[in-house]
Design goal:
about 130 residues, Lipocalin, eight-stranded antiparallel beta barrel, about 20% helix
């Protein structure tokens, strides 16, 4: 009887140990955060037209905003474009989690978490970039 009780307890302990095992993260995926950027606000084409321009960022880079069909994009000169999703009037979010906010009828903008858009900004975190036309 004692042997069967010990065997049962050992089986439970081994099962619990196996269930608690978590595979180690690979270095490649350990710093990756996925943010699902879904549009919660639909900008009209005419509304976005006031933002469709090139902006000089405070770090010297140029960012251009464009529209293709129902999709809006932000592009840093010399880098791939980023699809942006409307969040509220004048506010967009990239798939990578950078927040773009237009002010003064599109004359100025602020980009929060800019490092998520540009490899040149990977040296910092929570970088805020300012721009004007």
């Amino acid at each position: 009887m004692k042997a069967s009780t010990l065997s049962a307890l050992l089986a439970i302990a081994l099962a619990a140990t196996g269930a608690a095992y978590a595979a180690p993260q690979t270095e490649q995926n350990s710093d990756v955060v996925r943010i699902s950027a879904q549009s919660t606000y639909r900008h009209s084409s005419s509304e976005f037209a006031s933002y469709e321009s090139a902006y000089q960022l405070s770090n010297g880079q140029t960012m251009k905003f464009t529209q293709f069909g129902n999709h809006f994009y932000a592009t840093l000169k010399g880098e791939p474009r980023h699809k942006i999703f409307g969040q509220s009037p004048g506010v967009f979010l990239t798939e990578s989690g950078a927040l773009i906010e237009f002010r003064e009828d599109g004359e100025k903008l602020t980009i929060t978490n800019f490092e998520r858009m540009s490899p040149l900004a990977q040296t910092g975190q929570n970088i805020t970039m300012y721009a004007s036309r």
